[in-house]
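Key idea: predict the complex, not the pieces.
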Amino acid sequence: MVSKSYKAWLQYEKIETVGIRNAYIKQLGNIVLPAEISEFAPAIRELKVAIRAMLGIEPVVSERPSNPSYFRIAMASGEEVEQLGSEGYRIRASRVDAGTCLTLVGGGTSGLIYGVFHLLRLIGANEPVSELDICEKPVSQLRMLNQWDNADGSIERGYAGQSIFYRNGQISERLDRVRDYARLAASVGINGISINNVNVHKTETAFITPGLLPEVAKVADVLRAYGIRLYLSVNFAAPIQVGGLATADPLDAAVQAWWQETAKAIYDYIPDFGGFVVKADSEHRPGPFTYGRDHADGANMLADALAPFGGIVIWRCFVYNCMQDWRDRTTDRARAAYDHFTPLDGSFKDNVILQIKNGPMDFQVREPVSPLFGAMTKTNQMMEFQVTQEYTGQQRHLCYLVPQWKEALDFDTHAQGEGSYVKRVADGSLFGAKHSGFAAVSNIGDDDNWTGHTLAQANLYGYGRLIWNPELSAQQIADEWIRQTFGNDDQVINVISRMLMGSWQTYENYTAPLGVGWMVAPNHHYGPDVDGYEYSRWGTYHFADRDGIGVDRTTNTGTGYSAQYHAINAEVYGDAVKCPDELLLFFHHVPYTHRLQSGKTVIQHIYDTHFEGAEQADDLQKQWFALEGLIDSARYGHVRERLREQAQHAKQWRDIINTYFYRKSGIPDAQGRTIY
Ligand code: GCU
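Result:
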């Protein structure tokens, strides 16, 4: 028996209200399918599975209508081909003689899949379908998930068990779980998955060799059925490590030839191979710097190899000095990506995309948007989010991240005047990029519920939905997800929705304050350790002393990072009075007595938010208790346990942070609450 937690948002619960069910039966009981679309195509299979489960009938599939009302499925023809593109679809109801014809037209096989999932989502929410007139296509081109999975089965920053892709150093022989993942991913519009960690170790380096390509190709076959292309993270030193060459210099002819042959071999096995994801010269990974070359030299060499086959190179911008001396106050990690990449604007081949993390540091609970968005007008760029909750509670805490991502996407870079939103960089429209889109580090593993915390499924769902259309609201996405996952009971929807929507703020409240970041235990990054990274080599400091805290990133007295933004933003961030409270300590070093725009002092803000955050975490539990009996006991109990742990850990965060700052500053809490 497949559990409810395994089914995630594809529950397909039987519709119990007879009137509603009958209306759907009338409309969907007869599927009219042209000969060109196989009854066994994944889209049609999915539709039949769902109809059986939700409506309790076996739909009749025929080439001509056999009922007065029916559901017609077709591939686009004529003008619609271009209108919809291969990923778009149209769903429209129209009156016919004695009934209603509901038509789904897919621009291509992917469009058909997405259209089916859209319709099933509406049915799951018990929405009427007899008046539908929907035309959709994705706003962004590349909609990827990055697995940070290793061949040994472990997952870097994975919080939901072991990898579903690998077992004991090999690609898993049982790919049914990968198929189910592909279904989930396709249901929210994902069209690319890179299947191995960006830190490419020994075994994975050989994935691109003829010895292992047949295995990789099996995974590609599974993904392809759902409109998902396979990508691989590659090791820049592969020519040495698996090619037997003495160098990986991108300007060396033998190296170039090796990559070209390698690309050809890959496409022999995987004709629609997406391309390479590359982490180079970053955190000790090999790269072009070793040979005195730059990132463009490295990326372009790979791009040339892939170009004949239509492949792309996704080159990550997470490049900084990870061996910094904490005594060195002139180096600022936040500056690094911009400083490395903006001078290269315009020198990358057109099948290279730079993948940029949403913030300049590393997926903290709060960061400003990376200034690289908006800084390169002649270079393809894509956004990298982190769905896996490395710094946001590791799927032991509830933290619905869609509001955070939305904030990043709605940020106005002012690169081309007002309205130059990050979402317009990511969808390619702002600078007319050839390639663009999104990637995110996945949060799944082989836990029965995929994501460790059942409510963390909402982040995977939400990521896909948001990047399909960044205009959707976080609330709307939450609502969709809850209905499909837990049903349509109003109380369930209200409670879970409230919990999700407040959870990011709650997490921020009891962890690192005012944008300063870190304060987590080194290495595993779970739990509070205020000075854990303060004297380390990672460039992640808060500089708290007895008088104040924060990083001066202004132009006059600090690292100058604030000037990496366009004028309006640079001015706001560079001024401690104008800087938004939530980012104050990212940009400024201020006394504890500095007054925020909220009217509170920094120190009082720290105390207040930490007391409040711990209370809010406690309250999450109480809200959940109200759902006992309204949702299945297995998922109810599991989430209750997670929330209990979260409430406890939030107290730990509260007391450690408050105590630390009380001891540093000597300033008592104005409300006299207990600080140790
Ligand atoms: C973070 C994370 C690493 C990861 C790196 C990356 O630093 O902790 O595990 O490898 O990001 O994005 O490459």
